[in-house]
Amino acid sequence: MDKSISFLLGAGFSAPKGYPVGNSLSNLLLNCRDDFFGFSTDGRLCISRDGKKPDFGFKTSYDFEFDFCCDLIQYFNELKGYFDYEEFYDFFNQEAKVNTGVKELFNTKSYGDQKDFDQMIFSLKNIYTQLVSHYLVDGDGESWYDNEGHMGGSWWPGYTGILNYFKTLQKEYLINIHTLNHDLLFERLTISDWFKDDLTDGFEELGSPYYGDILINNRNYRCRLQHYTGKYASNIRLYKLHGSKNYGVYYRPQGSSLIPETYLKTRWGIGFTELLKEVNDGNGNLKYENCWVNYHADFLTGTTSKIERYQEPLLYKTLFEHMKNNLEEAERLVIIGYGGRDSEVNRMLLSHFDFRKKPSYIIDPYPGKNIKELKDQLGARLITKHLEDVSLDDFL
Questions:
Q1: Is the dihedral of CA 303, 305, 308, 309 positive or negative?
Q2: Nearest 5°: phi and psi at 234?
Q3: DSSP state letters, 229-276
Q4: Superkingdom of the source (predicted)?
Q5: Residue 44 and which of 24, 33, 135, 292 are 20 to 30 A apart at CA?
Q6: DSSP, res 54
Q7: Full residue range of the structural domain in which residue 176 is found
Q8: What is the rounded distance in angstroms from the CA atom of residue 327 to the CA atom of residue 322?
Q9: Structural domain total, the chain
Q10: β partners of residue 377
Q11: Side-chain half-sphere of 369: how many Cα atoms within 13 Å?
């Protein structure tokens, strides 16, 4: 297809499904307690099948790191007078090591045998990323949709209007979806009458040498995993600019070092400590190399920290290059549920989309100050409707 339309989706796109956004996610983290989860000896956040707190017989070092993370969240909240989960990520990445109050907090409280302050700060990313991922669930407590049945018909509560708009566009346009969300809601649409199998995201399973282990009913299975190839074959293309809760890095051994090789997509039940690569041992036999350094998904957060990673060549730089090219070729731009707070994303929109000659639209029933400013800069039409109520007429 010669014609294309670019979409940018923010957290507001997932809100009708019950996902926590903005302040609600910050409040969940601010009030976080480990009453129903714990951290295993390999660093994974774990939940018991019966919903009770897992009992490993003792507190692991990761449990103590979680305690410190919770204390630091409270310290940050008192320091700022509010808690923002992205600003907190920047704080412990960029300021915590030199903040005297943080060091005093560490020295005056007991965190088991954890005595190395710098190491404790370093460990926070593993813990905090898993906490954010833990709370990224919809209103039904779901976050994986691979076992969902095919969604037939032309009605889906909260989304009917926008999905019917997508379906209309498919007939004439190449649709490029750029999302800042880490959840898997959009992928759920691949098993629906709206998208069917027409959605690609640059990951492929065919020919992949990467696997993950899964334990079901005390039986161990090895599943092939998709890896990023950068190929987009369908007319609906998904670019997860900030990563996803199912994206992880595979590191290959090189001497005494581990080198990031590619991004993989895990599946339900497969953690990030069970990533393997099938290789030839040099004698014509296959063996599996275990990537043992992962604890959590790789997605971007923070207000400034994430921007620093936009140039990483393994995935994010490629995704943003696609976005720039897509914006330049797009006949129109549609922004949904984006708060307008990412300065670099805003710059790309204004630099690569020809807003002086081409129409743009912002769908937001409750637009804030930042998105209103972006609307004025783009000269966009503001559609203050819920996604359920959007219709084709709004774009004419």
A1: negative
A2: -95, 180
A3: EEE--SSEEEEETTB-TTEEEEEEEETTEEEEEEEEE--TT--TT-EE
A4: Bacteria
A5: 24
A6: P
A7: 1-19+143-198+234-244+299-396
A8: 9
A9: 3
A10: none
A11: 0
CA atoms within 13 A on the CB side of 55: 3
> 169 and 276 share a domain?
no
> DSSP for 80-106?
HSS--HHHHHHHHHHTGGG-HHHHHHH
Do 391 and 324 belong to one domain? Answer: yes
Residue 280: its H or E element: strand 275-280
* Same domain, residue pair 115 and 154: no
Dist. CA 340–CA 10, nearest whole Å? 9
Length of the chain, please?
396
Residue 293 phi, psi (nearest 5): -95, -5
177 and 223 in a single domain? The answer is no
Residue at which a domain ends, from 279, 297, 315: 297
- pLDDT, residue 269, reads 87
What is the CA 275 to chain-centroid distance, rounded? 19
Percent of the chain with pLDDT over 90: 71
For residue 212, give the 3-state DSSP assignment: strand
Model-wide pTM > 0.90: yes
The DSSP H or E segment spanning 310 is: none
Token reading at 242: 């900030």
235 pLDDT band, cuts 50/70/90, is very high
Exposure of 19 by Cβ count < 10 A (0-12 exposed, 13-18 middle, 19+ buried)? buried
| Block residue for tokens 């965190």 | 111
Which residue bears the tokens 């074959």? Answer: 233
Domain boundary among 135, 170, 186: 135
pLDDT digits (tens, 9 = 90+) for 271-294: 888 889 999 888 888 898 888 777
- Cα separation of 394 and 396, whole Å? 6
CA torsion angle 76 77 79 81 (round to 10): 150
Burial class (CB in 10 A: 0-12, 13-18, 19+), 335: buried
